[in-house]
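Translate structure to sequence.
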């Protein structure tokens, strides 16, 4: 039972970590369509902004000036939290691989292997919380930005939605959290 639970938690953690990495690297955190005719589709991300022409499918991307340049707080905080979550999830995966019962590393000392699984669960939990805070921070800021435009009657047909990268970050963080719970609470 313990080995099956470890492998299940590892599979979930691996998939969720890949989701977190993909969310950090992709650039569709916020989607807006500038007009009601939907001639263009704009995705803003942590690293660049891309516009897709809906008629011919041509996509052009503009890189942000520099990583060290002045950026809005939501981009800086989300970058920091997501990169930290990625690093912690990667460290947790490496620790979990060494702590799995099916791996022959430290086979003679099962107590150490169990502690490694617990440690991986704690590290994965910390990474998942940081990733969830980063994703939700960005989503709330997008919602507040849209609400400010609507409340000041500057709506002008612009609508903002959460992009698939934002949803992917939330899903990856939630999956890492579930894997963390499996490793820390359900593993005997």
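Result:
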């Amino acid at each position: 039972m313990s080995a099956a639970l470890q492998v299940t938690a590892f599979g979930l953690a691996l998939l969720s970590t890949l989701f977190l990495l993909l969310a950090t690297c992709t650039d569709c955190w916020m989607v807006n369509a500038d007009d009601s005719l939907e001639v263009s589709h704009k995705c803003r991300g942590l690293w660049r902004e891309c516009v897709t022409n809906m008629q011919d499918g041509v996509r052009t991307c503009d890189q942000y000036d520099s990583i060290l340049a002045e950026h809005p707080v939501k981009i800086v905080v989300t970058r920091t939290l997501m990169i930290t979550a990625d690093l912690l999830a990667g460290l947790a995966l490496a620790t979990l691989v060494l702590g799995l019962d099916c791996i022959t590393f430290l086979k003679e000392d099962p107590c150490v292997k169990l502690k490694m699984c617990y440690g991986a669960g704690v590290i994965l939990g910390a990474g998942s919380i940081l990733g969830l805070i980063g994703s939700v921070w960005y989503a709330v800021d997008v919602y507040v930005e849209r609400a400010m435009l609507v409340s000041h009657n500057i709506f002008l047909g612009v609508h903002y939605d959460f992009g698939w990268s934002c949803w992917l970050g939330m899903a990856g963080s939630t999956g890492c959290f579930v894997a963390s719970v499996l490793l820390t609470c359900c593993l005997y």
